[in-house]
Amino acid sequence: MRNRRYAATGLVVAALLAASGCGNGQASSQDGTVQPAGDTSPAGQGYTGGYGDGTEQAGQGTDRSGPAGTLALREDTKLGELVTDSKGWVLYRFDEDSAEPPTSNCEGPCATAWPPVPADDAAATAGIDSEELGSVKRPDGSNQLTLGGWPVYRYAKDAKPGDTTGHGVNGTWFALAADGKKAGQESAADEGSDAEDSTVPAGGGSSDDADNAGDAELAVADNSELGEILVDAQGRTLYRFDKDSAWPMKTGCLGDCLDTWKPAKPVDKELIEGVDPKLITTFERPDGTEQIAIDCWLLYWFTGDTEPGDVNGHGKGGVWHAVTKDGKKAKAAN
What we know:
Layout: H1 2-19, E1 33-34, E2 72-76, E3 80-84, E4 92-94, E5 98-99, E6 102-103, H2 109-113, E7 133-137, E8 143-147, E9 150-151, E10 173-175, H3 195-199, E11 218-223, E12 227-232, E13 239-241, E14 245-246, E15 249-250, H4 257-260, E16 261-263, E17 280-284, E18 290-294, E19 297-298, E20 300-302, E21 320-322
Parallel strand pairs: 1-17
Antiparallel strand pairs: 2-3, 4-10, 5-6, 7-8, 8-9, 11-12, 13-21, 14-15, 16-20, 17-18, 18-19
């Protein structure tokens, strides 16, 4: 009787956990979006084994919502010349926005982490062409400052004027240069040569004979070393991180970690091949951007992979692993 009672209790617990989505405390919407559970700071301390510095802390007692005033140019030792507001706060742009025409796609929690800069009272300084300044109307009716057509933001986690902790976050946020381009990349021939688009060319060759994902945004590729693993639309291997948590869903990759490991973007479930769509969810990161997860494990691509089929990230630090179609860690073939 006792064993039966324990077995029944176990079934009830399992059922409750299954019903809760990706762990207790998750607020999961009908579209599969999963909110971080409670305070994400314990898992959000980053990983110091060369992949994260744990320094992301929001500034205290600072206002990020006011007008920019007269813009200024500041020389940064790593990024070169970048744009700040009149109080010295570094200004940013977002790759998922558009400059032609100016469009902001950062709303809700994203706009809390990245406060839009009002267009009121903005003026150019020496080195910034006043004709590059403009404005775009946001969905709430307010006018946001633009520079070179790009909507302008501050970062809530910059602790003091001059901080550039927002630069490179998720591979989509960058400090602004004087002409609206990304700071530190003025010498790039064009925007298409930056960051994510240049890391792995879609449809490129592969020494491992990995399958090209084709039109699929998420697919399974046959790797000679690891067997069947997940790849994105560009054929890049997708990874999971032992310092993340699936129950409840939390991210352990913040700060410098994101310079090396880029959160994979959500996908259209109609464009998935070889994977059960029921395993796919979308996670909202602390900065308000979204990331795809499989079986509640967050997915990343590795900047050290240069061609489709590369698995250079597998086993990195003993905590990064290529992923199977059911969300498990890939294992080398015997």
